[in-house]
Amino acid sequence: MPLPPLELATAVPLPQIVLGISSAKYLSNFYVPTSVPAVVGSKTIVQKANLITSPFNQNAAYLDMLAVTGGGIIGVIHGLEMTVNAALNIDVSAGTAIIEGIVQKTSTNVVTCNNNATNRIWLKQDGTFEVKTDLNYPSIAACFIGTVVTSGGAISTRSTAGVVYCRCGIAYRETADAAEPQDTPNSLWIGGITKTSGGLYLWNGSQYLRLDNNKLTVAKTANYTVVTPKDRDKVFTNEGAAGQVDFTLPAAASSDGPFIFYVQTAQTLKIIAGAGDTIRVDSFASAAAGYCQSATIGSTVTLVAINATEWVAISHGGTWTIV
Known about the structure:
single chain, five-stranded mixed sheet, 3 domains, 37% strand, mainly beta, seven-stranded mixed sheet, Jelly Rolls
């Protein structure tokens, strides 16, 4: 199953380097009759007078293309890019998608969006497009193409955030999440890679695994309740705060961290454990649902959960009060 579209700002896509298949390789190139279908899918090999080589060639090309692109992924192989036409119309370029088999559009298609709405564009397995204004999946297998926002009879923005691309058998997408992607993919979407503004993440069927070591610094000037499991690997600071900033940790049983905290402004940065959890820094342990805090610039602590009830500092510096 593909991933649902995400409510995100426009991502900045990387140059698309298509490997293993030419963007000009359409199954219709192997179709002999002069009437070339706009949508090309699997063809039954049948014997016709003087035309038996056409079905054989097309099926051979179909199987070759599946082998090259990875037939188990629902995503865009090439093309199917959105450009503004006029008023509420979007042009979707010719291209190829894997939707439980190969689906190709051999020419540009005009898709009409709803006015004053967030439109999510889907290419369905039958070769037609569907425009939805909710997050629900179409009634049949479909590939997400992008999001178009309209207002006052015109297109305001368009985005490919969340679109899955098939790159040599690997599902790849980009989103504008600050760190770990904020969705929960289908358990069957194993091996999919997501690039966010905070790094690269691999979905293993149950959780995201970070693929790089880049840290993301997030400054908070107001209480942050709760630091969620999806905030792992972030460096939280209180830069610019005019007073105390509280950070509430998730339940130790639900996350392993690490969560990193750094006092950048001479105001109290307070880290609070969840109900029943403790925080340990060196030999000092907090009470259940206790906290550690510091107002000394340069103080830092990295916390991980070692079991279902204990957060421990695997590194720390500066001055911390444990309560």
